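User: EcsC family protein. Structure?
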Amino acid sequence: MATSAYEETMLLELREWQQQMLKDPSLVNHFTRGLQQKINRYIPEKVHQAVTATIKQMIRAVLFGAKHTTAKPNPGLSLEAREAAVRERIAFYRSTAAAEGGITGAGGILLGLADFPLLLGIKLKMLFDLAALYGHSVDDYRERVYLLHIFQLAFSSQQQRREVYLQMVDWETQKLHLPQDIHQFDWRTFQQEYRDYIDLAKLAQLIPIIGAPVGAVVNYRLLQKLGTTAMNAYRMRWREQLFLNQMPPSPDLLP
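Assistant: Predicted structure:
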């Protein structure tokens, strides 16, 4: 099956992104990760458990609630048409997150702390919308797990990002081995990686005077990064599906 000029360009971008995902951690990555792990060891276990439980419940609420307000997938669109709509949705959520970050950043520490769950909800809702635009139904539990993997790709250390990426390659096979219960997801690693990734940037949002512009800029960039990650993750799915559709049927399946 021939690919269009748009698809050829997209595949080049995808290969470059895949190479970035597979890069080994740099010395700076190792130093930063070591420092974060050292800090985490000083945090009481009860605090870790409380934060993990909070993030788990917040994400579960969005994962099992947002699907009811997400548009149904349209199977008839070309990849180019899908990605034009995807870019529009990313721009919408990027602007929404920037406005939310500016408002909460201007409100001091209390409103700054409120930014965490608000921003998390915006990010996950955007992922639901993008999944539908790429033609994947989030009614399927495994598609919601894929969303969590995309989230981890965007907001994790390079070492963790590489591990998550390898779990997403050949997803049509990988998803068959997923646990049936989302409680078995590694929430502890998820929350630590996410928290460590955004901590320094978001702490500046709590500082008076500069909190508003910092909140707006940081949220804008975080949504852009998540959007770019999601686009390439679904491009990888599209390429995999294209390959599977071209494969001859297995002899075991022939009449």
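Residues 249-255 have pLDDT under 50 and may be disordered. The chain has ten helices and no strands.
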